[in-house]
Amino acid sequence: xxxxxxxxxxxxxxxxxxxxxxxxxxxxxxxxxxxxxxxxxxxxxxxxxxxxxxxxxxxxxxxxxxxxxxxxxxxxxx
Length: 78
Known about the structure:
By secondary structure, this protein is mainly α. The protein has helices spanning 21-36, 42-76. The protein contains 2 helices and no strands. Helix 1 (21-36) runs antiparallel to helix 2 (42-76). The longest helix has 35 residues, at 42-76. The relative contact order is 0.10.
C-alpha cells in the first residue's frame, strides 16, 4: 500500500497596517529588501511597489482633502 503524504497549507499572509504614509513606506522597504535578497521575484516586487505607491497617493489626497475641509470649516465660522 502506498504511503500517504500530507501537504501543509501555507500560512495566511500577515496582516499589514497601511493607514499612514509611514506604514506604506515601511512596507515598501520590506518589499525592497525581500527582492534585493532574492526571496521575492522582481516582477512581484514591482507590482507590490506600484500598489504601495498608489496607496501612498491615495493617502496624500485623503489627507489634503481633510485639511482643506478643516480650513473651510474654520473659515466659515463667525
